[in-house]
Amino acid sequence: MRERFGEGISATADARTLAAILVSIAVVLGLLYAGRDVLIPLAIAFLISFALSPLVRLLVRRHVPRPVAVSAVMALLLIILASLGLLIISQVGTLSQELPTYQSTIRNKIDGLADSLHKPGMFDGVLRTIDTVRKEVGEAVSNETDQDAPLSVEIIPDNTTPIKTAIAFLVPVLTPLATLGIVFVFVFLALLDQGDLRDRLLRILGGNLHRSTDAMEEAGRRISRYLIMQVIVNVTYAIPMALGLWLIGVPGFVLWGTLAALMRFVPYVGPILSAVFPLTLAFAVDDGWNMVLLTVTLIVVLELISSNIVEPILYGTSTGLSALSLIAAATFWTAMWGPVGLILSTPLTVCLLVLGRNVPQLQILETLLGSTPALDTGTRIYQRLIADDVEDAIELANETVEGSSLVEFYDTEGLAVLKRASANYLSSARPEHRLRIVNGMGLLLDDLREEFPGPITLRKTPFVACIGGKWEVDNVSAKMLVHCLEMSEIAAETRAAGVLTPHYLDKLDLTGVDVVCIAYLSESPERNARAFCQRLKDRWPMIKIVLGFWHLQESADVAQLARECGADHVVTSLGEATHRIETLLYPWIGKQRQLANRPPDDDARIAALRETDLLTGALREQLDSYAARAAEVFDVDFAVISAITDDDEFIVGQSAGVEDRAISSDGATIKISRRDAICDHVVEIGELLVVRDTHRDPRFSDHPTINSWKARFYAGAPIGTETGHVFGALCLLNTSAREFTNEERELLSRLAAEVSSLITGKVVNRGEENPDQNGEESSSTTAQLVPE
Fold this sequence. Notes:
The protein is α/β, with parallel strands linked by helices. 62% of the residues lie in helices and 8% in strands. The strands form two sheets. Strands 8-9-7-6-12-11-10 form a seven-stranded antiparallel beta sheet.
């Protein structure tokens, strides 16, 4: 009884919360609609200020006082708007004088079309029927009208005064001018008091100051770049449009190009409206149809080029809004604020999306508006298998593998499905669900093996036996590992699943097997694994044992766990298992992977390095300062700046703590053999290299220098010349594994570019563009584009 009472209270509280939310939404919608006369100029002003803010910032950085910079930018804006207005007025005046000359052409074409319609054809019967019905209805209405004809009434208007006439004429003209003036004042004040406005918005947002600042920066960056790129896209469309109309011979080509640039600011309907005018004029000017057809061809070709080439190049990434949310937002803002709302719909919705990402209470906005899938790929596949929709699950798997790799798919989505199935085994999953998961995963793996077959190995006897530790899902993960090993040309097969008891061990045949991998998805398999490893070593002492503990976090101390269980290695991913097994079978491959290949420009790179003062020690104090700053900013244990010559790596800059590492040194400069260099892989690829856990990476898992420094995390950004010669790297190292975000990658690249500029004495820009700061993946390729 008490439990029911508690449930009733909880249900009542939830209902009250829902009611409060609905009332709040209704109030907000009412305020948006009722206050549109004030909110529309404010929204337009803020969007224009976002577009002009980079230019004002540029002038301020050139030591121009902010009032002067804002005044200059606003004056430039007024000059541009006035020039456009004068151009449009002059073009319209010229066309209005020429329009009467086109009346005969229009009349002849209409008459020709009418004659064509009245010629004998397949629709004659239909047209006669329509005419007969129209005549009968007309006669009936005429007769009825004659019988009951009402008295005619004439309304005589009151005499209007000149003042009323002037007011009736001026009000429609002055209202847009007043709105334009309000927008101008708002833009000027927003640019002039940008810092104060930002502080007030931060106060309104409240909460975490870092999160609020990030939200404002992201919104400003997205919207300002969106508007600037929109201007560039429209101009690159309008200029070929005007030139093409000029070549075709359509009058007023400058007007139609300008109109096309302006109308494309209106989503969806703008391009259509801008195409109507030149098409209509082409219809009126040319006696035939060639001009109309050429104009249609020009517009279609320009639209295809702009949509498929220009916009993706200039925009680059998506707004983060899904295609459905873009259409819904356009409909909503148009209903609220009319045509102006349609123009403002995308920027305003981007602001709402940014708020949803950075304000926890508004995360529902990100779910509703964002292009990021609501469920990750692993969860989507798991749900499809529960729903017995195996075909859709297989399609998702194939799409993911084609976009990455087979091993990466198994490590992320494949194991995620099995982990979720294992976690829900005794909680929410019904027996039917468990059966669907196992059967569906079996079909999915069979399809992947057909789509991505491994190379045929020469030796028929398997090197590796993969065994599921306890449950059927463990056996499924063992099958995944076999496929990964086959892709690496390692012969492997699965053995019958079952609880690894002594009775099971007696029936186990491991003849010809060199490595045994036992897969576990359960939370605490250590005791069972320890007992099995002991029995296995007693019976087959020469066999190597690898334990796949897929539930472990990447930061776990797998070396200690392997010693406790009596195994050769403990791994947490299929990729790591593949490389560990390959190293056990072929030790020389592991040694070879530690060594980086020399880049093609190695001689030129070394020559450019020796032309600098990097190896002389002249820059040591400044480079130490950069390394210390990097270690502090990224919160890592230590950082180094290194350079590589023919045979050696020199640590030319370092933060505190490096001196205590077990490495050799030559005077003030630490020197390491190039075979043991920590940045040689960065020199090889010439790009940022991030290793979240060196124990899992074959290049660093047995690296002597990395192991002597006890480093578990590594990130190296290349330093060198602006022409691409890489001298070495700015390296971050940490004694525990960690994640490295996209923002941190970009920041490390910028810091390495500063170091490169210091070394070479020239500006080197190696900052990486961040395609998606939130790691989001668009759910639809039709989503509108906008720059990050």
